[in-house]
Amino acid sequence: MSDDLLVVEGLKKHFPVTRGIVFQRQVAAVKAVDGVSFTVKRGETLGVVGESGCGKSTMARCIMRLIEPTAGRVEFEGREITGLSRHDLRPLRREMMMVLQDPYASLNPRKRVGSIVGEALEVHRLGTAAEIKKRVQELLDIVGLNPEHYNRFPHEFSGGQRQRIGVARALAVNPKLIVCDEPVSALDVSVQAQILNLLKDLQQEFGLTYIFIAHDLNVVRHISDRVMVMYLGHAVELAGKETLYHHPLHPYTGALLSAVPVPNPEAARSRQQILLEGDVPSPINPPSGCWFHTRCPRHHPGVCDVLEPQLAARAVGGHEVACHYPLERWPMSAAELAGSLRPDAA
Amino acid sequence: MTRYVIRRILWALVLFVVVTFVSYVIFFLIPADPVKLFAGRQATAEDLARAAHYYGLDQPFYVQYWKFLSRLVANGIIGKHAMGFSYANRQWISHVIKDRAPVTASLVFGGAVFWMLISVPIGILSALRPRSLADRGATIFVFIGISAHPVFLALIFLYIFGYKLQLFPIGSYADFFNPPEGQPGGPIQWAWHMFLPWCTFAILFAALYVRMIRASVIETMSEDYVRTARAKGAPEWIVMRSHILRNALLPIVTMLGMDIALGMGGAVFTESVYSLPGLGQAVVQSLETFDLPVTMGVVVFATTAVLIVNLIVDILYAFIDPRIKLA
Amino acid sequence: MALLDVKDLRTTFRTDDGLVKAVEGVSFSVEPGQTLGIVGESGSGKSVTCLTIMGLNDRRSAVTTGEAFFKGDDLLTMPSSKLRSIRGNEIAMIFQDPMTSLNPVHTIGWQLVEAVHLHQDVSRSQARASALDVLKAVGIPRADQRIDDYPHQFSGGMRQRVMIAMALINNPDLLLADEPTNALDVKPQAQILKLMGTLQKEFGSAIVLITHDLGVVAEIADDVVVMYGAQVVERATVNELFARPSMPYTWGLLGSLPRIDHDVERLAQIPGSPPSLLNPPTGCRFHPRCKYAMSICQSVMPELLAAGGSATHLSRCHLDQATRDAEIKKLESGHFAEVT
Questions:
Q1: Burial class, C274, CB count within 10 angstroms (exposed 0-12 / middle 13-18 / buried 19+)
Q2: How far apart are CA A224 and CA A340, in angstroms?
Q3: Could you tell me if C210 and C279 lie in one domain?
Q4: In this complex, do C191 and A263 lie within 8 Å of one another by their Cβ atoms?
Q5: Residues in Cβ contact with C155 at an 8 Å cutoff, skipping those fewer than 6 apart
Q6: Which of the two residues, B36 and A25, has the higher pLDDT score?
Q7: How much is the average pLDDT of A58-67?
Q8: Architecture (CATH level 2) of domain B94-322
Q9: Do residues A196 and A223 make contact, with C-beta atoms less than 8 angstroms apart?
């Protein structure tokens, strides 16, 4: 059995923009995900960070085949799943589950907790009604809920408890991979800590593999083994978490890291923030060359706006970055960032 | 914006074709053989064939429909030759419609003004003071308005205000512009004659709208931007006018277009009870005498009117709600 | 004299289920030009505190007692016309969700001009000019074109800038910001915080910043109030709070925060969930979740008393100083997880 649970290659998702009065013709495409490649190893957590609109959620939905990717391959346990029919996909649906952001919106308010958690078991016909009930109670216990609350409705639970229900639902069919899309960003800090600890415990106990999507770099660092940074539908940097947080190579990663709030007044006030100009460009009409060049403090005219950088290994330990002028060291101030342009030898 | 308007208009045209087609199918092809109706009861087989040929009824169905549609378009919906004439009294259908449409229009649009005049203030007041005496009164009004049938209400109104108190005329109509000789006319007479019909017609919708406006205003009052307006230091009346009402009445505008259409159906009852010579009455009479061309003509005319009203409302909506323009 | 002096503020809401005591005896003060951070989880009463000061609670269901002196006048008892002339003028507020806090049917220019006209007697063109100035000040690109755009044409971060512009347009002395960066990504969040700091220097306003994020507090606050279960449980200067947090709830908050500058295998977690304000626990509000709880904690509510020998540092806890010192030591060595 290979080490790689999931291999994603050149994944693209373009949403058509149509115009026309009677007959709709496609005039442009929202390039939500535009060529992302990575692998996820068995038992690890891959964190995915990026601002809203960078395509991280769309990417997750493509991997889950909840939406059809425009191009690219997704291999799960060595088997390509991008071309599979609905029918062939069914057994695979048990192997990959999802935990969503909003614990208020993602649970059907008219269903009892028992049937929400047991739904996947019923769909895949895994046992009799009594067996399913027993399994659901076991699951509720595993995620730290009272198994006797089997018959309650979602609104009778707090936000954190609802997210536990969401986790129990994902666990029900013993999946190998769980994709968590901003699972804690709607929660208070103390509850967020509870859920993060729960996810870590479950990973150890059941050997789960996670793709953990979030915009909070503190949270991603805490839970991930490796981290991928996305910008405008592209992966700009991918590395082990220590490497990424201590030796970032991409200027965008650097800018993100410099903006993370640190609960330490002296450190927070003394550090230098790298501010980026303007908003993220529209994915309908992304910049030429490097997609980040319009906001990059290291932007080098004639190179960055012409050549599209490829995500490639630049250093030891599989540290990949898509940049023509990666950072030489970290931390750097904004002035140093702009001043130290040297064409990259690699 | 222009695109939006053009698309809306094209859609209205498509709907027009669909609607006329369906009406044509229902009224000419499904019920009893129209040839017999034309030719009379004692017609021989030969007469029938001749009549069928004369009216083009021996041609394939799509040819008939095409001719019908092109006549309709070429002459304009209410042009003289657009829809032929009545079987019963050989009147041009365009005449029937021209005579009667203003009556129905007076009833429906006057009624719409009426129900908005009633429901907007009551709806806002009861939203401002939920569970107050005024709100409870409004709830009772809503309850009565929704459950009482217009025919029943009309009879009660006629009995009390027409017969007992003699405040309003019973069962007649006064033309706004050019009344027939010897009959009352002019704006005041018109409004006086229409007052009870308006009340009857409007009460159901007024009740529904009180409920809708109340809910919409209450919902809007708890919007974050209303709190923002108060935090800016705006006095309550400005908060109400510029921030609550503008948003709360937006969905009401779209409802209005649909309900005016619905109201045309309801107008049949009101017209019958008050003996108003409107389209509804014409339809009822034509159905009783199997006068299919009249029924057909009124239905085609009414649906076209509904399409146009809805089109206007949709375009109006795009002007008052900035978020629509991008769509 | 303090710019804002809140004394024993209490807000109670009548609901169908009973009385909800959303704010219970909150006191704090804000000096001109200073930033006060109010930290707490949802339902701790931090937003209601601000709304009460602004007089923005629903008058039919909320009952308020206590005092809130602004430049010497009590905001809670002054006539509503006077309060209106202060709101949006001398005290302005920024709300949590920029997506819903702007009116969707008016252009942002219209909404800014309205804010000017409510408090200043100037011509339309003057009002529009100051709207344009303030939009430029908060960093809206191409402000002269965007002023006539509607809110839905802006991104979340840009809308929050518009909200800030609207709050600043009348040059307020006090800015109440209710989770202004909660709905935003890291990058726009940092930009907004930076912007608020810059504007504070430029306009000299004092800020009350409500947040659940201790990182944000560390970033810009001078003083901090920690709220739990409708009460103030700790009050200190920002350096005191982070160097010597003095009660278990604050320890829990600090420990449950995943952070970029510390590595821990497990986060400290505060078990359970925040108390119901409809039926709060007896004694110390935090005792059902507190691992140090003693029998006295269940029956007697601790007072807000000086902690650690500093006059500016108050906390509400029965623990003796020696125990606290020992725990703070552990904190200093970075063992957050062991504390709670």
A1: buried
A2: 31
A3: no
A4: no
A5: A279
A6: A25
A7: 91
A8: Orthogonal Bundle (1.10)
A9: yes
- The Cα–Cα gap between A43 and A225 comes to 10
pLDDT tens-digit series, residues B143-188: 888 888 878 888 888 888 888 888 888 777 777 777 777 777 778 8
User: Which residues from C are below 8 Å from A256, CB to CB?
Assistant: 186-187
The verdict on a CB contact (< 8 Å) between A188 and C155 is no
**Cβ contact, residue pair C269, A189, below 8 Å:** no
pTM of the model: 0.82
In this complex, which of B224, B233, B323 lies closest to C85 when CB atoms are compared? B233
The per-residue pLDDT for range A247-257, each reduced to its tens digit, is 999 999 999 99
| A20 and A50 part of one domain | yes
Q: How many Å apart are CA B208 and CA B256, to the nearest integer?
A: 11
Q: What residue type is assigned to position C314 of the chain? A: L
Q: Give CA–CA dist A133/B181, Å, rounded.
A: 85
Cβ pair B231:C119 closer than 8 A: no
State whether C34 and C109 are in the same domain: yes
* Cα–Cα distance measured from residue A14 to residue A31, given in angstroms and rounded to the nearest whole number: 5
Chain C neighbours among B 304-323 (CB < 8 Å)?
320-323
* Residue appearing with tokens 């909150």: C26
Regions of chain C with pLDDT less than 50: 337-340
Does any CB of chain B come closer than 8 Å to the CB of residue A25?
A: no
Peptide bond into A331 cis (omega under 30): yes
Q: Are A160 and A182 members of one domain?
A: no
Q: Which chain B residues contact residue A21 at CB under 8 A?
A: 3, 6-7, 10
Residue with tokens 């030591």: C329
State how far the Cα of C324 lies from the Cα of B61, in Å rounded to an integer.
Answer: 94
Nearest to B217 by CA among B191, B193, B241: B241
The answer to whether residue C149 is domain-embedded is yes
> Mind telling me how many Å the CA of B9 is from chain A's nearest CA?
10
Beta bridge partners of C73: C70
CB A135 within 8 A of CB A127: yes
Q: Chain A window 44-73: which residues touch B at a Cβ cutoff of 8 Å? A: none
Cα–Cα distances in angstroms (integers) from residue B257 to residues A226, B107, B262, B314, in the given order:
57, 15, 9, 8
Per CB-CB distance under 8 Å, the chain B contacts of A19 are 3
| SS3 sequence of B223-288 | CHHHHHHHHCCCCHHHHHHHHHHHHHCHHHHHHHHHHHHHHHHHHHHHHHHCCCCCHHHHHHHHHH
Contact check, Cβ <8 Å, C56/B235: no
Whether residue B233 and residue C88 make contact (CB cut-off 8 A), yes or no, is yes
Q: Are residues A18 and A161 in the same domain?
A: no
């002028």: which residue's tokens?
Answer: A325
User: CB contacts < 8 Å between A and B, how many?
Assistant: 7
**Residue C234: inside a domain:** no
Q: Are the CB atoms for A196 and C256 separated by under 8 Å?
A: no
Using CA coordinates, name the residue in chain B closest to A19: B3
> Mutating which of C93, C105, C170 best tests the B interface, going by the most B Cβ atoms within 10 A?
C105
For chain B positions 249-278, those within 8 Å of chain C (CB to CB) are 250
Question: Is the same domain home to C250 and C219?
Answer: no
| Per-residue pLDDT tens digits for A214-261 | 988 989 999 999 999 999 999 999 999 999 999 999 999 999 998 888
Does residue A159 contact residue A191 with C-beta atoms inside 8 Å? yes
Q: How does pLDDT run across A189-200, given as a tens digit for each residue?
A: 888 898 999 999
Among A18, A22, A23, most B C-beta atoms within 10 A, so best to mutate, is A22
Query: How many Å lie between the alpha carbon of A193 and the closest alpha carbon of chain B?
Result: 30
Distance from CA of residue A209 to its chain's centroid? 13
Strand partners, A13: A33
